[in-house]
Amino acid sequence: MDVRCEQTNGCPPRPWTDVDTGCYYDIRLARRSKLIRTYNKDHIAAVKDAIASGQMEYVLEAVNSMQSVPWAINQPILDMVEYCFENNIPVDGLPSNQRIILPPKVEPEVWSAMTPAQQKGVKINLASLRTKDRGNVADRMVLLRDLSTAKELSQYDRFYLPHNLDFRGRSYPIPHFSHQRADHIKAQFQFSDGQPFGPLGAAWLSVHLANTGDFQTAKGKGSKLSFDDRQQWVEDNEPAILSVAADPKSDLWWTEADKPFSFLAAAIDYAAWVSGGRLDSYASRLPIALDGSNSGLQHYSAAMRSEDEGSLVSLAPSDSPSDLYQTVADDVLVSIQADADAGDELATLCLSVGVGRSLVKRNVMTFAYSSERFGFRQQLLTDTMKPLNDAVLMGLIPCNPWAIAREDGQGTDGGFKAAGYLAGKVYNSVTSIVHMATEGMGFFKSVASACAHERLPLSWVSPVGLPVLHKYSVWEVKALKLFLFDRKVPITDAGSHDKIDEDGRGVIRQVRANIRTKPLDRIDKEKARSAIAPNVIHSMDAAHLMLTVIAAKREGITNIALIHDSFGTHAGDTQRFSQIIREAFVEMYENYCPFEEVLESARASLSIEGQERLPELPTKGTMDLQAVLDASYAFA
């Protein structure tokens, strides 16, 4: 496909520029020349039409490039995963090979002497141990299958991972055993073909070591340091790194890393480079990962041209990475302090317990995907309050520090009020700090609501020509009555709807189940509204990934390891690859506006009355997208 730019002479150099054809790929022209709208069309039919017309050529090229990467098993990491599992060495994320020993049954006289709270604590502890044990059993089975697969693949010098796409364009390997899994699986993957370090490969391997270790330093976590400081950390800790590489079975320092097995793989590669004389010709096969800094808000900042918000997610040139989570945490503290100064006892309690980056991180991370005040509260209850309450009941700690006395005098609230209070503070802070992203999300929700009001789905074409259908139907539900045999249920406990088996030895219990049978012609308005923002942003990060793949391929960089907003390649190619990632990002947003695309699609399908419900396009800021090209920490 040859899509030429009508202004070839005036185009700036692009990663996909071809000497003979000029601008090989201009998103705006390619999209408008072969625009296919899905509207109420069946999505599969729309995609087939797009493929037949050539609109999907870039999508297919990107997917074929992803699944053409030759992989090999990193044998030392496979051996260490198996060794740690067989010897029950605790490594974060690795399942235990032993069953959990349940505590003995409490004697009746001891049980009767317990308070109701103590009895509840015993039950919670027992239930927790049983749940964890069942999970471990399942995880062991999965790991044993993964180890079997890895051993079989280790016999070959190369193998491949076929990929597919979800409806937004996000790519996933079809095999379950892939580099998009947990650290102990991901670290077993390396490129089949080696690539010389060149002059900068060793530096990028050092950055990767600091990232995967992410140890706390005097200047902060390793992944938040400047590149120079990350390299300095490796130099300062080189003896320890070489020690674990030489004997990881005895020196278990690597198990304390944020990504233990990936850190070990990098340490082994680093040690091989050192022992070989620290030569630029050293051929590495390890993928070096470059991750987006809060990817969702990066895409909103670029789409809204928000200079201030872009700088908070490292889209502006700087000497070190930005930290949006810490920025929000600091703002929350200021607000809580003001309440405490005004005499608010709950605010004083929160200050005494401590509010920091880790507390707000999940809230801020999920905000770009439509999590709001209620979701924030539920996250805090689940992640912070429930574990503390369970620990209290199990006798591990004396009290939940966030809990306050209930108004009815019946114990404490388990931190419920504190969770609601903190959720409100975090929500107010994040919406004020990234107010333009908040406006952008509100725009998408309003458009989705207008379409849902007329029982219409919402569709758009992504920057790479992929038709995306945002459709959440209301389903017809049929209630079923099922009967399940259960000998453990005493016949005397049988309910009025249960049955006794013929020999009178057990109970056939009635269970009711709701089964979705067919979609109706109505749209689930709430789902349509809540899912639109993440679906648009995911379609954008998927398009950015594909554009990066295509651009890298033009320059001969074909060994790539991709996980949505994480981009990896050889250490020797990482310097150029990091620039290509940003070039593709800038090119995409200079030629494509998701707000205009979604609004145009909705307007084309709605009635006149429906069009009147559509919001105005959000007002954009003054961010210079070209500055992203010099933002070294945007993907780092």
UniProtKB/TrEMBL annotation:
One of its GO terms (cellular component) is DNA-directed RNA polymerase complex. It comes from the Bacteria. Belongs to the phage and mitochondrial RNA polymerase family. Residues 196-603 form the DNA-directed RNA polymerase C-terminal domain. Keywords: DNA-directed RNA polymerase, Nucleotidyltransferase, Transcription, Transferase. The keyword Ubl conjugation does not apply. This is DNA-directed RNA polymerase. It catalyses: RNA(n) + a ribonucleoside 5'-triphosphate = RNA(n+1) + diphosphate. InterPro entries: DNA-dir_RNA_pol_helix_hairp_sf, DNA-dir_Rpol_C_phage-type, DNA-dir_Rpol_phage-type, DNA/RNA_pol_sf, RNA_POL_N_sf. PROSITE patterns: RNA_POL_PHAGE_2 (PS00489). The lineage of its organism: Bacteria, Pseudomonadati, Pseudomonadota, Alphaproteobacteria, Sphingomonadales. Its EC number is 2.7.7.6. GO terms for molecular function: DNA binding; DNA-directed RNA polymerase activity.
